[in-house]
Amino acid sequence: MEKKELSIFNAMKFLKDCFDEHAAKDGEKATMTKKELADLLHQQFEITENHFIAQYFDGMDKDGIMEKKELSIFNAMKFLKDCFDEHAAKDGEKATMTKEELADLLRQQFEITENHFIAQYFDGMDKDGIMEKKELSIFNAMKFLKDCFDEHAAKDGEKATMTKKELADLLRQQFEITENHFIAQYFDGMDKDGDEKITFTEYMSYLTKLFEGF
């Protein structure tokens, strides 16, 4: 897979497929149990410690029900994005993460302190040139989606929100959508508060609902 093939569609499809694969193990694909999340964390991040699994599950589960807790793909992605942003912003540049910032994240989230493991994780995430399918992780998919939003949203100097014109540029580049009525339809679907601007949360919420059918 060439790097240019890492599109919004591929990134969202990967995240949805990953969620569905694990959530469906109990026959109920719409929600994920703690055991299913544990399987996902083990496969994607090699996390096996119960206290870390509980920490991630409680961080994603918002309804406070102790039985079968509901976990949406959006909550999972938002949690990962918030975790990345918190550590990446330590040098004042939230869009990228240095090796030192990754080391802080690994220490805080996984209690990994050995330099050779930190270097291994960093080199494994920092990809150039050819990207094979196996290298498309949840982390890489989330970072791509955030970077794509930021790239287009920043064109008017305000990276936190996206205008209709900026969304039109994104839709043309990523999906080859050029018709004004489709652009207006997507924009209105994302702009939930009607302020004529789209936040990253509104953008991801709409994409999540859109990709439920895939």
UniProtKB/TrEMBL annotation:
Q: Which domain of life is it from?
A: Eukaryota
What sequence ranges are listed for the domain EF-hand? 178-213
Question: GO molecular function of the protein, one example?
Answer: calcium ion binding
InterPro entries, per database record = EF-hand-dom_pair, EF_hand_dom, S100_Ca-bd_sub
What PANTHER family would the database entry show? PROTEIN S100-A1-RELATED, S100 CALCIUM-BINDING PROTEIN
Q: What is this protein called?
A: EF-hand domain-containing protein
Q: Which organism is it from?
A: Takifugu flavidus (sansaifugu)
